[in-house]
Write a structure and sequence with these properties.
The protein is an alpha+beta fold and 394 residues long. It is 16% helix and 32% strand. The relative contact order is 0.17. The longest helix has 17 residues. The chain contains six helices and 21 strands. It starts with a strand and ends with a strand. A hairpin with a 2-residue loop joins strand 15 and strand 16.
Length: 394
């Protein structure tokens, strides 16, 4: 098949309609090692929440990732969830699961610390308007699990600085979600202050509730740990008195500058009704969620998951800071890449958001053999995504 490629530049889309995403972060308490049978317990929680993006930490094995995917998420007629690649770090690990009807995974990156890696996952929205004349929205998710312990402020600060250094080194970063188990006792703790304010990428608490959270009844409706009074299954006890689990977002998510907007009053520590201070998630009786869900939250982990909703523009456009015309050229039936792209990956998606090619660029010339039609081509660089729309014609 002879292929002729017409390279199209990106246009600026006009927002005509909206869709929404539900985002959920959860510390799974050494899953599945503490008790592998918890996949059905987790299923009750995720079926109730119906997240589109599910980011976890304290994952122990790839087997655990597959249990979550196949026994918790893709159940009861649902088969659309996919996951990122499992990376076995030096301690417990992270994972991202996503609804592939709405989202596609572009890249993932590990950011190493002396204890646990941060994980970066870049997703794109499968906009119904994704075609030759429109671009789509990109979202950057980060999973964090900082050092636990009331006396480990300095190590948490060091870890937070590593993540902020990475974020500040990225150009064109947009729609950022940094979540997980931070083990911050206060929003004024040095590590939290570094994460929120240092460098060029500021992060914000969607609830704007920065304060001294630990053992403070004023913040009882925000506490996420512990769901239990007594400890069992590797988990901590002591009742609800800490806000360890959070989702921070970049300013553009709050101001809807790049096609993603936080939906007011959607942020919630699932099952937290404000009446849990120094109590468990199930006692006194919890009326904020069904009894089956509160019981599942009790048995699944000593942390509560944190959820939030965002609205997306169908046809929002994100313009690359890199001019793709300077790096990729078309000549006859070939793409000609600048030498700096050799050694990077070429990702190609069809108009339905399906990844149809994922290949390493080994030479400066490349022939793309695909059926006639429009495609989105992405070459991830360290600090930017080079993006082009292409048309393949026999």
């Amino acid at each position: 098949m002879r292929v002729l490629l017409f390279i199209l530049s990106f246009g600026i889309g006009v927002s005509l309609a909206q869709d929404s995403l539900k985002i959920m972060y959860y510390n799974l308490l050494n899953y599945p090692d503490a008790s592998p049978e918890r996949s059905d317990t987790l299923r009750k929680i995720v079926q109730y929440v119906s997240p589109d993006v599910f980011v976890v930490n304290e994952l122990m094995t790839e087997v655990g990732a597959d249990l979550i995917l196949n026994e918790s998420l893709n159940q009861f007629g649902t088969s659309t969830f996919q996951r990122a690649a499992f990376v076995d770090g030096t301690d417990t690990d992270n994972m991202l699961f996503y609804n592939s009807d709405k989202l596609g995974l572009v890249t993932q990156t590990q950011i190493e610390t002396s204890l646990r890696d941060f994980s970066e996952y870049v997703l794109y929205y499968k906009s119904p308007g994704l075609n030759a004349s429109s671009d789509t929205v990109y979202l950057h998710f980060y999973s964090a699990h900082l050092k636990a312990g009331a006396g480990d402020f300095a190590q948490r600060a060091d870890e937070a600085q590593i993540l902020k250094n990475y974020l500040n080194s990225r150009t064109g970063l947009e729609n950022v979600f940094v979540g997980g188990d931070f083990n911050f006792y206060s929003g004024n703790e040095e590590g939290c202050y570094i994460l929120r304010t240092s460098g060029s990428v500021e992060l914000f608490d969607p609830l704007d509730e920065i304060g001294d959270w630990s053992a403070n009844w004023v913040y009882a409706d925000l506490h996420t740990q512990s769901t239990r009074m007594s400890s069992f299954g590797d988990g901590s006890g002591g009742g609800m008195d800490d806000r360890f689990d959070l989702i921070f977002v970049s300013d553009d998510v709050l101001s809807n500058e790049n096609g993603v907007a936080y939906i007011e009053d959607s942020y919630w520590a699932l099952g937290q009704d404000g009446g849990r201070y120094n109590q468990s998630i199930i006692s006194p009786t919890n009326f904020s969620v069904p009894d089956s869900v509160s019981q599942a939250l009790y048995w699944m982990s000593d942390h509560l998951p944190v959820v939030m909703d965002v609205e997306l523009d169908y046809t929002a456009s994100v313009e690359s800071l890199i001019n793709p015309e300077s790096l990729i050229h078309q000549k006859g039936n070939q793409l000609i890449f600048d030498e700096q792209l050799v050694g990077t990956n070429l990702l190609v998606f069809d108009t339905q958001g399906r990844k149809v090619r994922d290949t390493r660029i080994s030479f400066t010339t490349f022939t793309l053999e695909l059926p006639t039609g429009y495609y989105l081509m992405i070459v991830p660089l360290e600090d930017e995504l080079v993006r082009k729309k292409i048309f393949v014609h026999e």
